[in-house]
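Technical note accompanying the year-one report. For the benefit of new consortium partners, we illustrate the data format agreed upon in the data management plan: each record pairs a sequence with a structure-token string. No post-processing was applied to the example shown here.
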Amino acid sequence: QVQLVESGGGLVQAGGSLRLSCAASGRTFSSYAMGWFHQAPGKERDFVAAISRSGASTYYAESVKGRFTISKDNAKNTVYLQMNSLEPEDTAVYYCAASRLFGLDRVGSYDYWGQGTQVTVSS
């Protein structure tokens, strides 16, 4: 069992930045690849970014490539999502998730989920 808690969301103007954190507890954090997803009201939950167990490999949705950076600190049991050049279309609840495989982009492929943190980007 892995427990995940997101933080760092908030309200920001277009072009601004936010840094999301996801703190993990329970089973060994370093045993899992991690992902970030987001979900806007009335929409499906969509893939944002993924990172391998070691943190050496990353994978991004095309819509965030070049703007967002995922990173992982196994010693602190924490995964991060640095979001730059934010756009109103990025407004959503952001969730972190854990998987035993790297690079998965479907919700059903992840084993554990946090409760989410709201990101709102004003125009």
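Partners are asked to follow this layout when depositing records. The first strand starts at residue 2 and ends at 7.
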